[in-house]
Amino acid sequence: MHAGSPDEEWREDCAPRRVLELFATKWTSMVLHTLHARHGGTARTGVLQRSLPGISKKMLTQTLREMEASGLITRHVETVVPPAVEYRLTPLGERFVVPVELLYAWGRDNADALDFLVPRPGSRRR
Amino acid sequence: MHAGSPDEEWREDCAPRRVLELFATKWTSMVLHTLHARHGGTARTGVLQRSLPGISKKMLTQTLREMEASGLITRHVETVVPPAVEYRLTPLGERFVVPVELLYAWGRDNADALDFLVPRPGSRRR
DNA sequence: CAGGATCCTTCTGGATACTG
DNA sequence: CAGTATCCAGAAGGATCCTG
């Protein structure tokens, strides 16, 4: 347990980094959580948008596209008018929910310690 | 379990969002993990930098500053020449390590499913 | 050795308008 | 209703040079 040992090198494509990529898009884990905890794993676009106050239509669509490309969700299109699109968690997505929920649970348990972060709504970190 | 219920509103300052703020700086969780898993919770600046191939001196310092401001680590300065600075996980930091490690563990367990992400070193997601 | 100060490039993501 | 296409301000973060 010391420096230099290249056992688990922080290569650009190591597992930890790839997981972080999933958080790179701001809304991913929130969509994941909402889909899972509030809608049982399946929801339509508009429902998701209303469940995530503050997300723009652009970012919702973009996030959903990336999550689909990552294999976290699937997209089902009902060919009707007006179009109805449903997003559903994949088994991989369901599994990813577990650590994400743990992370959020930790946040709730340590809310006091995090109080000094995000002091006032509108200012980001730092 | 449906839309509209404002039980756990996604306000700008809700716990989940504040946790995500901790990941907003790219290297935070990697520094945390390295400090914990490779150095037993305490390490000097240079050691950390060598343990994190690819991090710039600027980002390392900046990340450490923010982590200190967030109460995840403490900074100890040895007043000698050349200066020696040690960073140490706080109890809060130690607790945060738990969900972070679970996240990384999930990544390792699902490495196969994540293989299509980060196809070649040098290109980011998408 | 630790880290501050700049410069500069890339990316994020919000606002808005438009299509089927 | 779902999605696309632009435009654009601001943030993230890498490279480099300088200080005690």
TrEMBL record, chains A, B:
<dbReference type="InterPro" id="IPR036388">
    <property type="entry name" value="WH-like_DNA-bd_sf"/>
</dbReference>
<keyword id="KW-0238">DNA-binding</keyword>
<protein>
    <submittedName>
        <fullName>Helix-turn-helix transcriptional regulator</fullName>
    </submittedName>
</protein>
<keyword id="KW-0805">Transcription regulation</keyword>
<dbReference type="Pfam" id="PF01638">
    <property type="entry name" value="HxlR"/>
</dbReference>
<feature type="domain" description="HTH hxlR-type">
    <location>
        <begin position="14"/>
        <end position="115"/>
    </location>
</feature>
<dbReference type="InterPro" id="IPR036390">
    <property type="entry name" value="WH_DNA-bd_sf"/>
</dbReference>
<dbReference type="InterPro" id="IPR002577">
    <property type="entry name" value="HTH_HxlR"/>
</dbReference>
<keyword id="KW-0804">Transcription</keyword>
